[in-house]
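TA notes, week 10

Several of you asked for a full example with nothing omitted. So below is the full record: structure tokens for the whole chain, then the designed sequence directly under it. When grading your own attempts, check the secondary structure regions first.
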């Protein structure tokens, strides 16, 4: 299942403030062609982007964040996990 759904990496970017819905819509639209999935955590201060070759998309991800007036903080890149696959299939986190 993980191989079928979970190709690529996840870039997680801590944000300087909570991202509102218009900003989320703008960022998602900008990254739509580059990313398989874009989502915010419950606090709306952590943006996660799943994409094939996510490291190569890092500059575009950070540019999309700054264009909506937010500053990126800590950036992490990791391989997809089973939780990422669960989120893609169900639309929610394991703990919700």
């Amino acid at each position: 299942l993980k191989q079928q759904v979970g190709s690529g990496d996840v870039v997680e970017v801590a944000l300087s403030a909570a991202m509102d819905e218009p900003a989320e819509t703008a960022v998602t639209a900008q990254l739509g062609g580059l990313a398989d999935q874009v989502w915010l955590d419950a606090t709306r201060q952590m943006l996660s982007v799943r994409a094939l070759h996510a490291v190569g998309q890092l500059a575009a991800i950070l540019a999309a964040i700054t264009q909506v007036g937010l500053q990126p903080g800590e950036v992490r890149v990791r391989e997809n996990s089973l939780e990422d696959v669960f989120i893609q299939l169900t639309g929610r986190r394991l703990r919700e």
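Residues 21-31 form the longest helix (11 residues). Use that as a sanity check on your answer.
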